């Protein structure tokens, strides 16, 4: 199962339509051997996510988001505190169901579990871009299942490091 997972990860990284489809098949093959392989579930979910990108495949998100949610929920059933699955579920709940508050809360929780995960941060920033108005300190008000949403933008953490090193100190 692990060998199939690694091959799927390599295919997913190319981000071309044929390779993404092949990664999906490889993740499914890995899951056929080990149905509780959380990393394979997450990989499968992120392959579905990439298929929704108009820049990559131009797929129809309505057909992919339910699959993303299904694998994220399955991964969280197996491992309740899996940050990647929680981030994927947050993105899916917000974008597919328009439950912005719930999606952002899941993303917040995912980042608390793994604050350095680039995939989660990218999805979170995408979600914030989708829900914020330029120049506005708050997210737009809207009704999602009859609930009002009002949330302030997330401030930059004071201890955040961009990954760049200080040329003088080398740190």
Question: Overview of this structure, please?
Answer:
With 171 residues, this protein is mostly helical. The chain has helices at 2-14, 17-33, 38-51, 61-78, 83-97, 100-113, 118-131; strands at residues 143-144, 147-148. Strands 1-2 form a two-stranded antiparallel sheet. Helix 1 packs parallel to helix 3 (38-51), helix 3 runs antiparallel to helix 4 and helix 5 runs antiparallel to helix 6. The longest helix has 18 residues, at 61-78. It is globular. The N and C termini lie far apart (39 Å). 35% of the residues are buried.
Sheet with the most strands: spatial strand order: 1-2
Any idea what the radius of gyration is? 17 Å
Q: What is the residue-mean pLDDT, rounded to a whole number?
A: 79
User: How far from one another are the termini?
Assistant: 39 Å
Overall 3D geometry?
globular
Main beta sheet:
2 strands, antiparallel
Q: How many helices?
A: 7
Strand segment count: 2
Helix content: 55-70%
Q: Helix/strand/pairing class, anyone?
A: mainly alpha
**Stretches where pLDDT falls below 50 for ≥5 residues?**
133-165
List SSEs in N-to-C order.
HHHHHHHEE
Question: β content, as a range?
Answer: under 5%
Based on the model shown, name its key terms.
171 residues, mainly alpha, two-stranded antiparallel sheet, globular
């Amino acid at each position: 199962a692990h060998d199939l997972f690694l091959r799927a990860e390599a295919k997913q990284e190319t981000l071309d339509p044929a390779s993404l489809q092949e990664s999906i098949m490889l993740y499914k093959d890995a899951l056929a051997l080990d149905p509780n392989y959380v990393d394979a579930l997450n990989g499968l979910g992120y392959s579905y996510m990439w298929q929704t990108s108009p820049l990559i495949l131009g797929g129809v998100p309505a057909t992919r988001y339910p699959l993303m949610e299904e694998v994220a929920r399955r991964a969280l059933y197996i491992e309740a505190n899996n940050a990647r699955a929680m981030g994927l579920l947050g993105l899916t709940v917000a974008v597919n169901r328009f439950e912005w508050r719930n999606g952002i809360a899941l993303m917040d929780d995912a980042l608390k579990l793994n604050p350095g995960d680039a995939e989660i941060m990218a999805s979170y920033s995408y979600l914030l871009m989708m829900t914020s108005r330029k120049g506005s300190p708050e997210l737009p008000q809207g009704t999602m299942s009859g609930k009002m949403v009002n949330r302030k933008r997330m401030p930059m953490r004071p201890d955040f490091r961009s990954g760049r090193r200080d040329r003088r100190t080398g740190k």
